[in-house]
Amino acid sequence: MRDKSTRKSILIIFLVAFSIITSTLVISLVARGYQLNLTQGISLKVTGILSATSKPKGASVYLNDQLVTATDDTLNLSPDTYTVKITKDGYLPWQKNIVIKKETVYQTDTQLFRSTPDLKPITLTGAINPQFSPDGTKIVYSVASASATKDNGLYIIELNNFFTPLTGSSPRQLSQNLSAVNWSKFTFTFSPNSRQILATNKNINYLIFLDNPIPKTFTDITSSLDSIKKDWQVQTNQIVNNKLNKLPPELQSSVSTASAQDIQFSSSETKILYLTQTDSILPNSLITPPPAQSTQTQSRNLKKGNYYVYDLEDDTNFLLGDQKTIINPSWIPNSDNILFISNQKINIIDYDSTNKQSIFSGNFDTQKVSSWPDGTKIIIFSSPYTSAVPNLYTLSIK
Fold first, then answer.
1. Is residue 43 very low, low, confident or very high in pLDDT (cuts 50, 70, 90)?
2. pLDDT at 36
3. What's the whole-number mean pLDDT along residues 79-104?
4. 3 state SS for the chain
5. How far is CA 361 from CA 120, 340, 364, 365, in A?
6. Is the pLDDT of residue 167 over 50?
7. Pairing label, strands 66-70, 60-63
8. Is 337:319 a contact under the CB 8 Å cutoff?
9. Nearest to residue 35, comparing CAs of 26, 193, 325?
10. Distances (CA, A) of 389 to 142, 167, 363, 378, 381
11. What residues contact residue 226 under an 8 Å CB cut-off, 6+ apart?
12. What angle do CA 289, 290, 293 make, to 5 degrees?
C-alpha cells in the first residue's frame, strides 16, 4: 500500500517537474522568436521579434506600408528587411528600414515630436545678450526696455524650476542697473562649472558668484582676468579628459578637444556625439557587439571636421555631417535624438542619422538655441517681426 502511494507521489513530482521544464522551454523558444508552424506538419518556425515602442504610446505601426498594430506591442517576423513607419496624429512621422534577424529582438524605442510646436515667451520685456550655461540649467541676460527703471538690469532664469511666465513667475533679477553699471552694455560668459558669470564691457570685467549673495557694488577684476581664464581652462580640460577616458582608446586620438562641446554624452551616457580632429579609420569590434546590433549604415572612415555618434554599447558609429551643415549640435535630454541648426532651420535627427526633421524655421539667433533640461521644449532667441524687441521663447516639441 505504501509502495503504491510512494510511486504515485513520485509520478506526480515527475509530471510537475516535466511541466515546469516544458513550460520554461516553450517560453524560452517564444521569447527567442520561435513559432509553431502547422503548414507542413508540426515544426518550429524561427523568427525575430519587433518590439514597437513609442513615446507617446498608442501610435500606429506600419510594416511595408501595411497597418499592423499600435505601440506598445511585439510582433514575430520572419528574418528579412522591413520598412517600419510609426505615426500619430499631431506628431511628425518616424520611419526606418530595419533588418530582423532570427532569435533577436529589435526595439524601435521611437520618440515622436510634435508637428505643430507650441511657441510661448519666457521673457516679455526683451532680452539682451542672453547666454546659456554649459550645464543647460541657466540663462543670464540683461533688460533695458522695462517700463519701470528699477526693472532694468541683470537677470537669470533657473531652468530646473517650473517656469510659467504668464502665471506670475518671472526670471530672477540679480542686479539692477547701477550708477556706473549698465548691464545692457555687457556680454556674459559662464564658468565651465556654471557657477560663475564673467560680465565684460570693453576694459571692465566683473565676476559674479552665483552661489553667494549678489553684492550691491562690483569690483573690476581685470587685473586677475588672466588667472581666472587659466583656472577656467583647467576646469574645461578636466571635463574634456573625463569624457575622453570613457571612450575606447582607438577613438580618443580622433576626437577634437578644443571645446567641451566637441564631446557630448547622451543622457544615458551610452552614446557620444563628437567632432573629429583628424582623418582616421575606426577599427571594427572595439567592444563585443550585442546580437541585436543596429543594422543602419555605419561610417568608420573618419574625416576631419565631421560630427559622428558612437554607441558605447553597440559598437556602431554614424556620420551626422560636417561643420557647415551641422551647426551647434547637442543632445535632447532624455532621448537619443540630436538637435542642430542648418539652413536657418532647427532640426532633430536620430542618433544613427535617420529621421532628420525640421521643427522650426524663421527669424531666430542660430547661436542661441538650447534644450530645456527635461527635453520637452527648446529655447530660442527670436523677434516675431523686424522691429520687435528680441525675447526668449520656448518651443514645445513633445
1. very low
2. 47
3. 95
4. CHHHHHHHHHHHHHHHHHHHHHHHHHHHHHHCCEEEECCCCCEEEECEEEEECEECCCCEEEECCEEEEECCEEEEECCEEEEEEEECCCECCEEEEEEECCCCEEECCEECCECCCEEEECCCCCCEEEEECCCCCEEEEEECCCCCHHHCEEEEEECCCCCCHHHCCCCEEEEECECCECHHHCEEEECCCCCEEEEEECCEEEEEECCCCCCCCCCCCHHHHHHHHHHHHHHHHHHHHHHHCCCCHHHHCCECCCCHHHEEECCCCCEEEEEECCCEECCCCCCCCCCCCCCCCCCCEECCCEEEEEECCCCEEEEEEECCCCEEEEECCCCCEEEEEECCEEEEEECCCCCCEEEEECCEEEEEEEECCCCCEEEEEECCCCCCCCEEEEEECC
5. 15, 12, 8, 11
6. no
7. antiparallel
8. no
9. 26
10. 13, 22, 12, 20, 10
11. none
12. 85
Report the range of poorest mean pLDDT among 117-121, 145-149, 189-193. 145-149
| Grid cell at residue 89 | 496624429
Give the length of the chain: 398
Average pLDDT over residues 45-51: 86
pLDDT band at 10 (very low <50, low <70, confident <90, very high): low
Task: Give the Cβ contact number of residue 53 at 10 Å.
Answer: 17
> Which domains are delineated in the chain?
34-111 (2.60.40.10)
Average pLDDT over the chain, rounded to an integer? 88
CA distance 356 to 348: 6
For the entire predicted model, the pTM comes to: 0.85
315/385: higher pLDDT: 315
Amino acid type, 176: Q
How far is Cα 327 from Cα 339, in angstroms, rounded to an integer?
A: 9
Q: Has residue 163 got a pLDDT over 70?
A: no
Rounded Cα distance, 301 and 250, in Å: 13
Distance from C-alpha of 152 to C-alpha of 42, rounded to nearest angstrom: 81
Task: For residue range 172-221, list pLDDT tens digits in order.
Answer: 999 999 988 999 999 999 999 999 999 999 989 999 999 999 998 999 99
